[in-house]
Amino acid sequence: NSLGASMSSLTVAASTRAPSTVVVDGAISTKLAPNLQAELDKMFGLWQSLFEEHCPEFRAQELSNCLWACAVLNIAPENPFVERFCYAYSKILTKSMAIPAVTAKASLHSSDIVCPQGLSNVVWAFATLNISPDASFWKTWQSCAVRNMNSFEPQALAICMWAMATMKMEPEEVFLKSWLKTLRTGLNSFSAQEYSTSLWALATLFKNVSPKDSILQTDRQDAIETYIRKFVEADSNAFQHEIFAVFLALVESMSTQALSNSLWAVASLKMTPSVALERAWWERFRVLLTEFTPHELATVLWSTAEIHVGKGD
Fold it and tell me: At what angle do helices 256-268 and 275-288 cross, to 10 degrees?
């Protein structure tokens, strides 16, 4: 039908502009040629009105594709679109959680099945578009994500927490615990980008809920901060040792961004890096020195100072 065709056109156009990685501390540039942008804007205006009318007919993957395309093409949807999307997607999420896990795995083509990639695409798109749906949508989204957490690939796992940290969301305790457990279990399969993005997101969340003036901290923020701190320090800093071991395995493939963000995360989470990690980090830093941006260099300096102050140097 015409709605499906226009959606496909938008998604195909978006796929040619899709970023291969999450951009941390920076906007994704998706500027198109003026004539193509004008055509897309015109098409999207017509398509958006059709979407609002036929939204309930869309499947979970079609809905996530739509929002993902908007974000990649930097087309900001209007409020009615966002409201209809959230209503329809929440309804599908709720329905999917009512399907027994065994049945869900046997019915992958059902319109009620929600995949981890779709869930991560949705939250990535909202963060990229700087749109914050209401609390009820996020609560439903987190519940569905927790149910599917064991199926999340490293990239989807990294993107989810990146988006939540970027939007300064405060995750439900059950989501945070599930995410950290899955992160820890799968760390050895992460790429350098996925590793640094995940650490950056966790550290950003930690800083978001740790205001400089403790009087301003809510009970929820205090609970999140306490849980993260205990998780990082538990079992004689076992998680930290695992983080450092994975870093040493990935350091040779790290970009300047991954390198600076990893060090920033270690400093922000108040970890004490091992001698081996510091040596490997500085060796990689020297190799890439001329490629660092001013922002990344500033991040490195702050992180280094913070780490050594923490050590009492």
Answer: 150
Average pLDDT over residues 172-177: 94
The contacts of residue 26 (CB under 8 Å, 6+ apart) are none
How many Cβ atoms from other residues are within 10 Å of residue 105's Cβ? Answer: 11
pLDDT digits (tens, 9 = 90+) for 285-312: 999 999 999 999 999 999 999 998 756 5
Q: Cα dist. 185→179, 180, 227 in Å?
A: 10, 9, 18
DSSP, res 98: T
pLDDT tens digit sequence for 43-79: 777 777 777 777 888 888 888 888 888 888 778 888 8
| Residue 135 scores a pLDDT above 50 | yes
CA-based diameter of the chain, in Å? 67
Residues contacting residue 54 through CB under 8 Å, at least 6 positions apart: 3
pTM over 0.90: no
Of 158, 235, 227, 160, nearest to 199 (Cα)? 158
**Which are the contacts of 1, defined by CB distance < 8 A and separation ≥ 6?**
none
Give, in order, the Cα–Cα distances in Å from 289 to each of 68, 252, 254, 274, 310.
35, 14, 13, 22, 25
- Proportion of the chain in helix, strand, coil states, percent, rounded to 5: 75, 0, 25
